[in-house]
Amino acid sequence: MSRPVIVSPGPVDVSPEALRDLPPLHHRSAAYERVVAESAAAVREALGTKRPVHFLTASGTGAMEAAIANATAPGERLLVLSCGKFGDRWAEIGAAFECEVSVLRAPDGAAVDVAAAVARIRADQPLQVAVTHVESSTGSLFPLKELAARLGPERPTVIVDAVSSFAAEELEMDAWGIDVVAGASQKALGAPAGAGFVCMGRGAMRPARRGLYYFDLRRYASEAGESATPFTPAVGTMQAIHRSLDAMRGYGFDAVRSRHRRASEAFLSACVALGFSVFPEEPSAAVQALGLPDGMRGEHLLGALSQKGFVAAGGQGALRGRILRTGFLGLYDGGTLLRLVHALSEALRDAGIAGEAALAEERMMAYSEKSRLF
Q1: Which pLDDT band, with edges at 50, 70 and 90, does 372 fall under?
Q2: CA angle 126, 131, 137 (to 5 degrees)
Q3: Which of 109, 180, 264, 301 would give a disulfide with 200, using CB separation of 3.0 to 4.6 Å?
Q4: What is the pTM of this model?
Q5: Pick from 145, 371, 173, 151: which is nearest to 262 by CA?
Q6: CA 77/CA 99 separation, integer angstroms
Q7: What are the sequence ranges of the domains in the chain?
Q8: CA–CA separation, 264 vs 287, rounded Å?
Q9: Domain spanning 5-9+252-368 has what CATH number?
Q10: What mean pLDDT do residues 46-51 have?
Q11: Average pLDDT of 87-104?
């Protein structure tokens, strides 16, 4: 029996090649230090920055917490620009660290009004602004480049959740003036979940907090630098990250991001032919969110896909049962996506819902025939 293919927003499907023949390494060995140092250099290259990168044995939320813990201080004004569940998480973390939090919230799936965001920043004068670049709950892409360009020289510290966007969407830290980026292993890095990273310079650091220990990035910088971690790391996951980043560098990060964009656009186009609708106004390349055809129940569709060997995701909270969410950042070619479109077509047909299956597969085939990244 073949294993199921994970096409959820994350953790993504990890190929056997990414994990095959990883040598056992001691976390204080020179060989492992090279893994960490080279991975940090590759992350900097992907982000267009010279700032240090620190890896954490933590999920993306852990990386977000480390960002807030080190870039804010109690009582400081933190403005969160959110368009979904994971943007809202910034507010929850900020409140936990005693920031004075305010939120500008766009409706689920709606595009963020950059002019309104800039006006709010000028009115509130926050010391920090936190955004989620790709909102995994809705598939929305935050217009980060546009926002950064309009902030001007007297700008707050900009903190970005790039858990879903890293290596899938354009993100130029130094050119855009982004101060802090948090990321994780289980999305476009195509590695197992369990490792995160924070990229930030000393200029974004606030005074050390009382009670902060594991996530104190000063400890990472002073005790380990970029070639190690002060605490026992997820060695195997870091090796998988290193292998994936090495492959991406070989192809070029621009080519990697272009592949993700083309795959997402082709898949969305195919699904529209089947009768789905694109849920977000500004869809991302990393996460696809689709409104369901009339008559299709979300739980029924997920069950049908599971029977056909695919693990996808539904909506969360108020969107439960209303949307289908996918992500395929860890997959290697378009053939898998063609099979996914075929499975969706069959699931709709079995539910008595007519869609243009031939057109959908034709649109996906056009991408699949010329797509192979790694």
Answers
A1: low
A2: 145
A3: 180
A4: 0.95
A5: 371
A6: 6
A7: 5-9+252-368, 17-251
A8: 8
A9: 3.90.1150.10
A10: 97
A11: 98
The answer to whether the CB of 288 falls within 8 A of the CB of 312 is: no
Kindly provide the residue ranges of all beta strands, DSSP E only, lying in the chain, ordered along the sequence: 5-6, 53-56, 77-82, 100-105, 128-132, 134-135, 140-141, 157-161, 180-184, 196-200, 277-278, 288-291, 310-311, 313-314, 323-326
- Which structure tokens are listed for 298? 């979300």
Does domain 17-251 bear CATH number 3.40.640.10? yes
Reduced to 3 states, what is the DSSP secondary structure of residue 212? coil
Q: Mean pLDDT for the chain?
A: 93
First-residue to last-residue Cα distance in the chain: 25
| Sequential DSSP letters for 71-85 | H--TT-EEEEEESSH
Q: 56 pairs with which residues across the strands?
A: 196
What are the tens digits of pLDDT across the range 249-262?
999 999 999 999 99
CA triple 70-73-75, angle to 5 deg: 155
Residue 85 CA to residue 156 CA, distance in Å, equals 23
Determine the Cα angle at 277 with ends 322 and 147, to 5°.
95
